[in-house]
Amino acid sequence: MKVVETPLTEAFYYILLALRKPNHGYGIIQEVLELTGGRVELGAGTLYGALQTLEKRAWIEIYSADLSSRKKKEYIITDLGREAFNKELERLKELVDNGKLMEEK
Question: pTM here?
């Protein structure tokens, strides 16, 4: 499966960042809040819709699932997801670098 060459949404970016280690939905929400100083608060609908999309793209996968307690699932980023994240990071760095060039002129 090929990595899509489009910018990531902010939600996708932070979800992938939060899944560098196994994490479940509530943990992802909390980590994103912490990473952004409370600026980005993922709602449950946004989070679970994004998780479904990321799983379909094979950018994340289920790490473990506890079927006895409300089907709590932990997810983790895949190699393909890491590739997509790293491409987005390069794109963002380019944007910042080009912005700095404009400041120097």
Answer: 0.87
Phi, psi of 4 (to 5 degrees): -70, 135
Whether residue 104 has pLDDT greater than 90: no
pLDDT confidence of residue 5: 65
The closest alpha carbon to 13, from 37, 40, 38, belongs to: 40
**Sequence-distant (≥ 6) Cβ neighbours of residue 69 within 8 angstroms:** none
Q: What CATH code is assigned to 10-104?
A: 1.10.10.10
Give Cα separations from 27 to 7, 23, 89, 105 (angstroms).
Answer: 24, 6, 23, 44
- What's the 3-state SS for 42-58? CCHHHHHHHHHHHHHCC
Residue 29 scores a pLDDT above 70? yes
Domain boundaries, the chain: 10-104
